Structure formats: C-alpha cells, structure tokens
Amino acid sequence: MKKWCKIGLLSLLAITALVLAGCSQGGRGAGSDQPAVISRATAQMGKLPGGAVVSGRLEALYSADVVPRTPGKVAEITVDVGDAVKEGDLLVSLDVADLEALVDLYAAQLDKARNSDLPAQKIQAELALAKAEAGFLLAEADYLRSKQLKDASALSQQQFEEYDKVYLQEKAAYEAAKKSLDILVNATIPETIRQCEAQLQKARADYNNSIIRAPLSGVVTARNINPGEMANAAQTVISIVNLDTVAIQAGVSEDQVNKIHVGQEVQVRVGSVRDEPFTGRVSNIALAANASTRAYPVKIQIENPGHLLKPGMYAEVLLEAGPEAGIVIPAAAVFKLDQKSYVWVIEDGCAHRREVETGQSGGGNVIVRAGLKEGEELAVTGIEALREGMKVVIQN
C-alpha cells in the first residue's frame, strides 16, 4: 500500500512539473515554479474622447528677489513676511550718512562752479582742500587711536563706529576737494561744471540706491535681514511674489503638442483647494522637447484673484484633443521600461511581454496603436511579479 502511494505521489509531481514547464519551453522560463495570480482584460475596438492629464507644481508668474544696489548698514525695515506691498513702497533703508554728506558737498561745488570764474574757483578750491585735509588728518588720528582702544577692549563697538563714520566722511570730503582742485587747474570752466554735475549725479544715485523700494506689487514671502546688519549686493534682503496670476509648467508628449495652441482654455484641478476645476489658459508651448524627459514644456496661466492658489501646490491639467479610435485596453495594463511601453499578453496560460505604441488616454483606458490585436488577453493586475514565460492563474 505504501509503495502504491509513493508511486502515485511521484506521478502527480511529474505531471505538475510538465504543466509548469509548458510556459518555459525554448528557454523562456523565469526560474520560478510558482504561478502568478492575475486579473485579465480583453483588447477591444473602441474610441476615446481624447486628451491627456499632465501635472506639475504651481509657481508665481511674477516674483522678485530684492537686493541692495549699494552696500550699507540696515537702518529700517518696513515690511515683514505676509505683508502686502505695492510697487514703489519702501522696503528697506540703509544708514548712509556719508552719502548724504557727499550729495551736499557736490551740490555746493556745482553751485560755486556755475557762479564764479576760474581764478576765484581755484582760490576757493585751495582753501577747501586745506580745510578738508586738516579735518581728514584729525579724523584719521582719532580713528587710529579709537581702533587701538577697541582692540584693547577699552572702547565699545558703538563708540568705535562713530569715529569710523567721521573718518570716512572726512576722507571723502578731502578726496573730493583734492579732485575738485585738480579739475580746476587742468580744465576750463565748462568742463569743471560738467565734472561737478557728474559727481553730484553719481552721489545722488548712490544715495537713492540706499532706499530700497518694491519693484512690483505682491506679498512678502521672505525677509532675510534685520536692522543693524550689513546688506550687500550679493544678498537677497526681501522676496516678493505676485499671486494675482499663477502658472504651471508641465510636459506633454509629441502626440499632444500639436493638438493644443496658445490661448486655449484648459481645466486645472488643484485638489488641495477644491474639487471644482479652475480655468487656465495656455500661454507658451516649447518648440523643442526636453532632452532628458522627451516631453515638450507647456506653460498654463491661471487667474487667482482670491489668492487661493499658492506656489508649490500640486495641480493636474486636462488637455483636450480630438477623439481617437483603435484597440482599447485598461491603462493599468501598460508599464514603462527604458522609455518604452509594454503589456503582458496571456497565451496558453503563460505571460509574454510585448512592446506596444500607445495613444490617447482617459477614463482609466488607453488606445493601443500598434502591438496588439482585437481579442487578445492581457494581464491587468499582478503585473509587477510577472516574468517572461511565467505560468499565470487568472483570478477573474
């Protein structure tokens, strides 16, 4: 009795092995003895309404990172994160007393150049230079002495900065007086006036640049500096975004790019805001595909009067296109590999990978333009576990 049971068991194992081997003839097996459990669908002729869903992140259409055009210590900041500003509003002012003094100095020199002759100007310039030199030497001596005291911790930083400010002002005044005398000696009165005008214009420009204003209307999203800190042209002090219009940039396939046009209205869904879609408008379509993604960048603008849409939110765009007829299969049956599309076709209870060319998609289905025939069966679920020639057990 035991002998017959043993023979029957061996026969059953042999039959099972032959069944499993049926999908692996010709060396196509995946090296697994366990069949995969799948659900299947049948390729059928049909039509899809057309269109594609592309996604991306919202971004502000207009934004600005504000940097100072002249370095200096921050005297005042009038805005904070979240504040609404209008174009031209004061954002930051710098402490630039030396620039203000230069404006006054050059304005006075220009007035003298316009209202006196060259010999009188020369005398005045020599007197001004002597006075400026005396003031500069005195300020320099005070500055050097204060630096020694500060290094010895006998003078506070604030007191040292006062000496430093006076020193810079006197130095600027001395250099300006010296330059003025040189101009008078080597130039005519018209040339002197022209030089004084240029100096005054430059001084006024530097002074105006110390007052930083909003370049556009919007909302402050970042403030990267505080009063008392040094600002320079390499640092963004304030960031502003205008939320009246936002944009999304997404990539579309070569099949879709010629079916949309600039100015076309599209539906944009932002699930984190509401279920009802927003209306957007195509504002730009790239003429060349992205080298890495092989998709064509498309920009869609969305009016945002209530500022419900924020930069960084995830959005989906429905791009309408003409209907397409052909073989229709579930989109879940298609998988990507090396930028190509594939499905698992079921033949004689075994799975075989096949490359396909896809078209329009929608409603969970996709058009297959090439690679499948009507009536062929393919795996829809469990495709991650499939290997070439693997035996399958159909669940549905």
Written overview of the protein:
By secondary structure, this protein is an alpha+beta fold. Among the domains are: 30-50 and 323-394, conserved putative lor/sdh protein from methanococcus maripaludis s2 fold, CATH 2.40.420.20; 62-88 and 214-239, RNA polymerase II/Efflux pump adaptor protein, barrel-sandwich hybrid domain (OB fold (Dihydrolipoamide Acetyltransferase, E2P)), CATH 2.40.50.100; 97-209, no CATH class. The protein is 32% helix and 35% strand. It contains 6 helices and 21 strands. The chain has helices spanning 2-21, 97-115, 118-151, 157-186, 189-209, 254-257; strands at residues 36-42, 44-48, 52-66, 72-77, 84-85, 90-95, 211-213, 218-223, 230-231, 238-252, 265-269, 278-285, 296-303, 314-319, 324-330, 335-337, 340-347, 350-362, 365-370, 377-381, 392-394. The strands form 3 sheets. Strands 1, 2, 15, 16, 17, 18, 19, 20 and 21 form a 9-stranded mixed beta sheet that branches. A 6-stranded antiparallel beta barrel has the order 3-10-13-12-11-14. It has a 4-stranded antiparallel beta sheet with strand order 7-6-4-9. Residues 1-21 and 25-31 have low confidence and may be disordered.
Question: Secondary-structure blueprint of this entry?
Answer:
Elements: H1 2-21, E1 36-42, E2 44-48, E3 52-66, E4 72-77, E5 84-85, E6 90-95, H2 97-115, H3 118-151, H4 157-186, H5 189-209, E7 211-213, E8 218-223, E9 230-231, E10 238-252, H6 254-257, E11 265-269, E12 278-285, E13 296-303, E14 314-319, E15 324-330, E16 335-337, E17 340-347, E18 350-362, E19 365-370, E20 377-381, E21 392-394
Helix pairs in contact: 2-4, 2-5, 3-4
